[in-house]
Design brief:
4-stranded mixed sheet, 36% strand, 29% helix, alpha+beta, Ubiquitin-like (UB roll)
Amino acid sequence: TIVVQVNGKVRGQLNLPHNSTEQAVLEQVQKDAKLQTYLAVRTVRKTIYIPNRLISFVV
C-alpha cells in the first residue's frame, strides 16, 4: 500500500506490488479519478517518492 499525499494531506492509498517503480505508481495515480480531482486543477511543482511507502505531490 502506497499513501498518496497532495500538499501534505493524505488524499488516498494505492494497492500496488512491493518494489513498484515510481513510474508505475505515477501511472496508477493518473488512472485514479478521485486523485485526479486534486491534481488536475493546478500544475504539479514537485513529486516526492519514497519507495513502498509514499508519493507526495506539491501543487
